[in-house]
Amino acid sequence: MVASAHAAVREEPVTYTDGQTTMKGFVVYDDAAQARRPGIVMVPEWWGITKHIHNEARKFAQQGYTAFIADMYGDGKTADNPKDAGALSGSVMKDPKVMEARFNAAREQLAKQSSVNPQRIGAVGYCFGGAVVLNMARAGADLAAVAGFHASLGLNTPAPAPGTVKAKTLILNGADDPFAKREQYDALKKDFDAAKADYQVIEYPGAVHAFTNPEATELGKKFNLPLRYDAKADQEAKAEAAKFFAANLQK
After folding, report:
1. Can you tell me the distance from the alpha carbon of 192 to that of 168, in angstroms, rounded to the nearest whole number?
2. Of the listed ranges 30-34, 66-70, 81-85, 196-200, the one predicted with least confidence
3. For the residues of 167-195, what is the DSSP string, one character each?
4. One-letter-per-residue 3-state SS of 94-149
5. Gap between the Cα atoms of 144 and 15, Å rounded
6. pLDDT (tens digit, 9 = 90+) per residue, 139-182?
7. Cβ pair 133, 157 in contact under 8 A
């Protein structure tokens, strides 16, 4: 794993709260840099905080960001099977107020970090996390840029009014992802167009759900789910996201 060889990247656990719930996230940054830098809130897949999300955070740290891995479930809970993962993610998504509170608690922690410029904060989400960050953009969260990798498109926030969406938004999905329905894309585009939002959708031919996660293929086989790592789509989507965040967070 190349990322861990980068000795200057530090990863520190952060315990924080959302109301009465104890949350256990992580701040990840390159301690070789002294200046305050843009921050990115990272919202994991429905499994919770996994090795994949830690690796992604280290890559963002190497690109000059402070990443904050959000705990969306409380107490750092994770799931190792779809039933539990569905129950945990569903408990957040069924109530937009819970989703927003959990995200905002993480954003607040990121903004407090001494390595962060609190005026330049974005967000990235994977699968379930993609749905979270897209919904936060729709809700008018104070974010400069939002990207979703193989984002679920379950919209649980009201259609945004014109001018509401502050975040520039990038959706990087697999064209063959059966979890993202055409009608969901249509609804998302209709709402973003009506809100005059600045957004882009890129679909990668042949890619299915979870294509950035090297563990996805094995998980797909284990649980008979359409999950598969796709090295080409992963590389292309990461390059697109790197350009997008550089243009909108580092200017």
Report:
1. 11
2. 30-34
3. SEEEEEEETT-TTS-HHHHHHHHHHHHHT
4. CCHHHHHHHHHHHHHHHHHCCCEEEEEEEEEEECHHHHHHHHHHHCCCCCCEEEEE
5. 25
6. 999 999 999 999 999 999 999 999 999 999 999 999 999 999 99
7. no
